[in-house]
Amino acid sequence: MSIDSVAIIGLGLLGGSIGLAVAEHLPGVQTRGFDADPEVRSRASDRALVGEVCDDIVDAVRGADLVILCVPVGAMGMAASAMKPGLADHAIVSDVGSSKQGVAQELERVLPGHTVIPAHPVAGTEQSGPDAGFASLFHQRWCILTPPDGCDHARLAELRGFWEALGSTVDIMDAAHHDLVLAVTSHIPHLIAYTIVGTASDLEEVTRSEVIKYSAGGFRDFTRIAASDPTMWRDVFLSNRDAVLEMLGRFSEDLTALQRAIRRGDGDALHDLFTRTRAIRRSIIEQGQDDARPDFGRGDHE
Amino acid sequence: MSIDSVAIIGLGLLGGSIGLAVAEHLPGVQTRGFDADPEVRSRASDRALVGEVCDDIVDAVRGADLVILCVPVGAMGMAASAMKPGLADHAIVSDVGSSKQGVAQELERVLPGHTVIPAHPVAGTEQSGPDAGFASLFHQRWCILTPPDGCDHARLAELRGFWEALGSTVDIMDAAHHDLVLAVTSHIPHLIAYTIVGTASDLEEVTRSEVIKYSAGGFRDFTRIAASDPTMWRDVFLSNRDAVLEMLGRFSEDLTALQRAIRRGDGDALHDLFTRTRAIRRSIIEQGQDDARPDFGRGDHE
Ligand SMILES: NC(=O)c1ccc[n+]([C@@H]2O[C@H](COP(=O)([O-])OP(=O)(O)OC[C@H]3O[C@@H](n4cnc5c(N)ncnc54)[C@H](OP(=O)(O)O)[C@@H]3O)[C@@H](O)[C@H]2O)c1
Ligand SMILES: NC(=O)c1ccc[n+]([C@@H]2O[C@H](COP(=O)([O-])OP(=O)(O)OC[C@H]3O[C@@H](n4cnc5c(N)ncnc54)[C@H](OP(=O)(O)O)[C@@H]3O)[C@@H](O)[C@H]2O)c1
Predict the structure, then answer these.
(1) Helix, coil or strand: residue B262
(2) Which of the four pLDDT bands, split at 50, 70 and 90, describes residue A299?
């Protein structure tokens, strides 16, 4: 068996980028796609995000060797149910959801007996929709697969090969551990960014227009993250609740300690923390996950 | 009177950028500079950050029409005392410190009878030192002046003209209000970024190497801010304590409310907040304080 045809369900940032990346890196592989929104389907056709845009989810998945669900995590179960009548027995069913335990349970429940291998490409931007995708989104980024116990090694290797062909490096992880790691590296940063932007919008002493004008002092970076899709992120927080609350508790404790240091004028405690945090930045740059230049080197995604 | 010679004290990111910007935009104006660190002075000479690098702070300021202190806010008073013997009676003394009330009080105390007009260019990067500066740092950025009561209008106009020549738009503000606004748009974002990076470094369940590998999910943006200079930021938090603690209190309340919404599974509350925060992002982009492109458009600073 090998992957000769791929069905992509949900043609937004992730689904569109996968379609474009397959066209670029795996030109022999056929792609079909579906999105619940007719306007998204129409834009997806215009941009040729997939070889064929179908008006029916069942047609889109029929005969596909690999089906990738690229919808918000709260919509995974519904999409899986809807496509089931067209799903080939041999198909690998995967997804790109930002949380994995809840999605894995939902897909196993809806598609018993099928080969389900959840995945999460750790790559994205704050933009969404059918105009947001681009073929190089996955270059030099990690893709985490969370195969269930007893997963067939050959099928896992096929899915790994697929993501590597798109430019990713693949890691295998337990779904629960994935959710804890991503709570720290992605979910909590988003939650904090949403919060501070919300706080800043609601102040009486400082106007919104002042917040906007002087945002170059650091705040603007948070607004970028806080401009991410509301539905996607609502679903992530609802589905990864336990890990998010756990990590949020740690963060709040640390923030309280820092608050106390400021109140007491304990400059040494502040200086110590501010010095330790630089080391992580250096490693991130060394490992190619960000760039030291003022433009972050993200221009290479254009 | 007009500004024909400028003395820059502290030749790091800000001081170096001012020197280079004067050379580019005001080629008729002479610049001299001093830094406490001999290695910084030597690099400053190599890069020609100012016309003349002096080994003595008193020589650097002698006869200057404008003296700009570009040292950490905790070092402003010491630098002002040290330069006092060389300071001309007619000189405008200004600075670029990130907090303004404390600096203003300190400079008034050390330099009674002199014309002191504190300033804060809201422009920066996470890098510091004599190699970090560049001439276009202030382009399209705000510079806030916080003149004391009774400040001479003509001198204020001169300083305004100087910053406008460097590419900034100038705003006049009360020092206390400045400190509140910047607590929101700059100081709290930095504090939060330092905290989350610290929290992530200290976990037992998630390794540092995992945090680094999967940082592209949002975390890496926080590490950039949390790589800022420890001394500079320690001084900012110590000198702007009251406004920082006040704003931190608001942020913590809002975070607690969001935490409760996640615990209760209140998806509507999450979706509402995540939708509201997008509007601010749009305004920031419209007003040229950030860019919608994936590289943030910061390439124009190179
Ligand atoms: N954005 C990121 O940075 C990122 C990174 C990694 C992983 N992810 C994950 O990728 C998935 C997709 O995110 P995205 O950023 O690509 O979102 P997106 O751009 O909003 O695309 C999602 C698309 O799925 C459609 N959709 C929703 N429910 C559907 C259903 N039942 N059947 C068919 N189509 C449906 C949506 O249509 P409507 O607009 O009509 O709802 C939308 O067009 C999410 O699970 C997210 O967690 C995102
Ligand atoms: N970085 C930003 O994004 C930014 C933005 C706006 C405003 N500011 C403000 O600008 C000021 C300078 O920040 P920066 O980023 O330019 O820092 P920087 O790159 O570290 O430069 C500061 C320089 O001042 C020197 N210095 C310290 N004490 C001194 C003294 N008493 N006399 C003479 N030189 C002394 C330092 O030498 P040593 O290394 O030996 O200490 C260092 O070379 C700070 O007040 C900061 O709040 C910064």
Answers:
(1) helix
(2) very low
